[in-house]
Specification:
The chain is mostly helical. Helices cover about 85% and strands about 0% of the residues. It contains two helices and no strands.
């Protein structure tokens, strides 16, 4: 089995950490998007204009 140098190992760990952070950020963004879209649907069903406007603003900010 080939051993990695210390520098190579640190580089791999750094890459893994960066990748994990990117995956986590994407999962959080997807969760927030899903929550907002469901809230928008619910506000439309209940005819809650204030909630609809708040959530659509939140959606705009998330998509920037």
């Amino acid at each position: 089995m080939k051993k990695f140098s210390t520098d190579a190992s640190r580089h791999l760990v750094r890459n893994d950490s960066e990748y994990a952070a990117m995956v986590l950020d994407k999962a959080i963004q997807d969760f927030r998007l899903d929550r907002i879209l469901k809230g928008i649907d619910q506000s439309l069903e209940s005819r809650n204009k204030e909630e609809f406007l708040r959530l659509t603003e939140e959606l705009k900010m998330l998509r920037k």
